[in-house]
Design goal:
By secondary structure, the chain is an alpha+beta fold. The protein has helices at residues 22-34, 62-67, 117-130, 192-200, 275-282, 289-292, 339-358, 367-374, 377-383, 388-414, 453-457, 479-488, 492-495, 525-529, and strands spanning 9-18, 40-44, 58-59, 80-81, 84-90, 95-98, 113-114, 134-137, 141-146, 152-157, 160-162, 168-173, 176-185, 212-221, 231-237, 246-252, 257-265, 296-306, 317-318, 321-323, 472-474, 501-504, 512-515, 535-537.
């Protein structure tokens, strides 16, 4: 029997939510606050809530306070208030500290908290379950189900046991149909269901292309004498230079823990750029290395980040459901924050669904959600920083920093800025031919401060069963060697932060493209940056992928 012929059991709910990140959890909690009678099912592909959550993170508690005003009394894991903000421009061997008074007030982290976002999500899941939300971790949602009228009806979740040949194995489980009067897509950045829905309903029509960054992070336990709880540091400049966009963060958490990370904007032009090695090189800077020396790395991970902001937010509702959180893209790029906006959009969608359900509606369009977003502080938060990213892209680091800062100050003081700049090309369209780009010589990791990719991937606790359909699908298996290799020196070898893609060269044989799917940390960079758009990321079996602790 083929997979297509399998009959599945179905369960029906008022609202089905795909993804237990901040947006999905906030939506679930808000629905139950509005009416305990509303049935809510929350599906999470990670082995547990928080297993796939990775963020810096300094969190603005504005949305959490709206959702759960007594979160402090309830023990939410926001234990480290920010005590000091530091901004630096780095050179190869030194740094220039940017005065805090130059920064617009929105960049001030006073009142924010350095956290493990994974642990915040675990805590939110406890609150949701206490209200009666049904949460199912380890259930990857692999298919969207539609009604006859074309509206979204639900999802298929929990399919396991399909072999590499696409046929059911002995341990095959067909999964279930989870059906909802409304379905919220909260998969995070570049989720496979969101990608399908945005295309099907043309939700990005009239919007700028979504832009992305690749964020890589390590969690370190450092020596007590260098630990400064609550200190927050952001840098720009070296090692990326003036043309490639990106920067770093270093957050001092509790218990001598330091969260250190590096973001590379995925609109870079040089196909020889190796984002992971930029991160490893960065840690040897004189500002950073003394903090890490004598410490130990505890965990590693990576994920893509929405960077399109205001101009790139798609239409938020579709027949039968809504896009919430990073499935739509609400990250404030200069603040490097999105959790507060993700939570608030989840809450707004919940309120729109509650009103619809109360009126006896189902499966239609939640237009009230989009209207609520446009009247919310999320809209304001994104609008006042809308030009920072495109200015950086078009003018480079120094020009973009100067004009972007002016634009933010104008928005702050006058309520308007320098128009609305466009993003231009998709990130997959920005690479120049390898022959026209300067090769980059990266120092070898020393195994103490810096590490090779495969060693670091082991610290993400990533696991995938070998005998299953590879979840990184090539539209044409010939393209990597026939097209990408001669044109761009096959950049998948470098842009992947987990070493999934290799060009294997053996003596006397033609080069071949190898996919090590078991290494995948579900960052989605390949789906975004591949210049031929030949790679499609889909979910593997539920519970697989990284298992991030305290990230």
């Amino acid at each position: 029997m083929s997979v297509e012929q399998i009959q599945r059991e179905a369960m029906e709910y008022d609202v089905v939510i795909v993804g237990a990140g901040p947006a999905g959890l906030a939506a679930a909690i808000r629905l139950k606050q509005l009416s305990p009678e509303i049935s809510v099912c929350l599906l999470e592909k990670g082995s547990e809530v928080g297993a796939h959550i990775l963020s810096g993170a300094v969190i603005d508690p504005i949305a959490l306070t709206e959702l759960i005003p007594n979160w402090k009394e309830l023990g939410a894991p926001l234990n480290t208030p920010v005590t000091e903000d530091r901004f630096y421009m780095l050179g190869p061997s030194g740094q220039l500290r940017l005065p805090n008074f130059m920064m617009p007030p929105l960049m001030d982290n006073h009142g924010n908290y350095a956290v493990s976002l994974g642990n915040v999500c675990r805590w939110l899941a406890q609150q949701a379950e206490g209200l009666g939300v049904e949460i199912y971790p380890g259930f990857a949602c692999s298919e969207v189900l539609y009604r006859e009228d074309g509206s979204v009806r639900g999802v298929v979740a929990g399919v396991v046991g399909i072999g590499k040949d696409g046929q059911p194995k002995a341990d095959f489980q067909p999964g279930m149909e989870l059906l909802g009067k409304y379905v919220f897509i909260a998969e995070g950045v570049r989720g496979s269901l969101a990608k399908e829905i945005i295309a099907k309903y043309d939700l990005a029509y009239g919007r700028e292309p979504q832009k992305y960054g690749l964020g890589m992070k390590e969690l370190w336990e450092v020596r007590p004498e260098v630990h400064k709880q609550g200190q927050v540091t952001h840098t720009m400049g070296w090692p990326l230079g003036l043309k490639a966009g990106g920067g770093s963060f270093m957050y001092h958490l509790e218990d001598n823990l330091v969260s250190i990370g590096f973001v590379v904007h995925l609109n870079y032009k040089n196909p020889h750029l190796f984002p992971y090695m930029e991160f490893q090189r960065f840690k040897h800077h004189p500002l950073i290395k003394p903090v890490l020396e004598g410490g130990r790395r505890i965990a590693y991970g990576a994920r893509a980040i929405n960077e399109g902001g205001f101009q790139s937010v798609p239409k938020l509702y579709f027949p039968g459901g809504a896009l919430i959180g990073c499935s739509a893209g609400f990250v404030n790029v200069p603040r490097i924050k999105g959790s507060h906006n993700a939570m608030k959009t989840g809450m707004l969608a919940a309120e729109a669904a509650f009103a619809a359900l109360t009126a006896g509606r189902s499966g239609d369009e939640l237009a009230a959600y989009e209207e609520a977003y446009r009247n919310s502080w999320v809209y304001t938060d994104l609008k006042r920083v809308k030009n920072v990213k495109p200015m950086w892209t078009k003018l480079g680091l120094l020009g973009g920093l100067a004009l972007g800062g002016l634009d933010m100050w104008m928005n702050q003081l006058l309520g308007f800025g320098l128009g609305t700049w466009k993003h231009g090309k998709r990130d997959s369209e920005t690479l120049v031919p390898a022959a026209e780009a300067k090769p980059i010589d990266y120092p070898k990791p020393d195994g103490v401060i810096s590490f090779d990719r495969l060693t670091n991937v082991a610290f993400s606790a990533t696991n995938h069963e070998e005998d299953q359909m590879v979840h990184l699908r090539l539209k044409n298996p010939d393209v990597p060697i026939a097209v990408n290799l001669p044109a761009w020196d096959e950049p998948a070898q470098r842009y992947c932060p987990a070493g999934v893609y290799e060009v294997v060269r053996e003596e006397g044989k033609a080069p071949r493209f190898q996919i090590n799917h078991q290494n995948c940390v579900h960052c989605k960079t390949c789906d975004i940056k591949d210049p031929s758009q030949n790679i499609t990321w889909v979910v593997p079996q539920g519970g697989e992928g990284p298992n991030y602790p305290n990230m």
